[in-house]
Amino acid sequence: MAGHSKWANIKRKKGVVDARRGKIFTKLVKEITISSRLGGPDPEANARLRLAVQNARGANMPKDTIERAIKKGAGSDGTEYIELTYEGYGLHGVAVFIECTTDNLNRTVQNIRMAFSKYGGNLGTNGSLEFIFTRKGIFTFPVPEQTDEESFTLDMIDAGAEDVEFSDGYVTVTCPLQEFGNIQKAIDAKGIEPENAGLQRIPNTYVYLTDEELQRVMKLIEALEDDDDVQKVYHNIEITEEQMALI
User: Which residues of the chain form beta strands (DSSP E)?
Assistant: First the structure.
């Protein structure tokens, strides 16, 4: 459980860094566009789009930017997106799982291979990290006013959650893949709109690194995150609060 909570806290804090880089909006717009294209432009009838819009709002994306992305997806501008994943290892045995959305497969493959090669990693075959990561639902939002932590936790567990953590003014709810919809409904019923929600790949085992080792491995992870075709990058490094200051 603790690993899940630490991972969620790190992702939330790192999300702030990504937003400052201006990269998070690009990735959110792409997700909104492809969600609208695949399931239609109505968030109420398209669960994936609804989630993408919810995450965009949580990142303070302007309303008109969200609406333009939805319209782009609903239109026919000739852009065809492909969703694919890559798996590999960075330095010091760090597992790295990458989710991409691209309109140019050759460009994406070349960029991913180049990043692994440049920073001492090795790109593996699909399925090679299946035993390291498990897909789980993660919901993160500020603690609602006048919330009784024990009562809220019991409600979430009844709905299918396996972990509920209150930390630094935020709530992080973790659930099995198959319970994602039930937790989403339970949170909606309480009138809560998460800042971030979705299916994430949670490590089952972690790697512990020295400060120097961490900084070297983070060069690969940051290079991948900076690629506009990359939507999400997962790793199994156990990062301490002190090490967060280094990155």
Answer: 82-89, 95-102, 122-123, 133-142, 163-167, 170-176, 196-203, 230-235
Work out whether strand 230-235 and strand 170-176 pair parallel, antiparallel, or are unpaired: unpaired
Residue 215 has which token pair? Answer: 């900084």
The pLDDT tens digits of the residues spanning 45-93 come to 998 999 999 999 988 899 999 999 999 888 866 678 899 999 999 999 9
Alpha-carbon dihedral sign for residues 15, 17, 23, 25: positive
Q: How far apart are CA 21 and CA 29, in angstroms?
A: 15
24, 65, 173, 174 from 72: Cα distances, Å: 18, 11, 32, 32
State the SS3 of 160-178.
CCCEEEEECCEEEEEEEHH
Phi, psi (deg, nearest 5) at residue 63: -60, -40
CA atoms within 13 A on the CB side of 207: 20
Instruction: Tokens for 77, please give them.
Output: 């501008």
CA distance to 35, 61, 150, per residue, from 32 (Å)? 5, 12, 35
| Spatial contact of 204 and 131, defined as CB atoms under 8 Å apart | yes
**Does residue 1 carry a pLDDT above 90?**
no
Domain count, the chain: 3
**Which residue range forms the structural domain that includes residue 234?**
82-131+204-244
> Residue 166 and residue 119: Cα distance in Å, rounded?
36
Q: Which residues contact 141 (CB under 8 A, 6 or more apart)?
A: 58, 170, 171, 187, 192, 193, 194, 195, 196
Please check whether residues 127 and 137 belong to one and the same domain. no
Indicate if 65 and 15 belong to the same structural domain.
yes
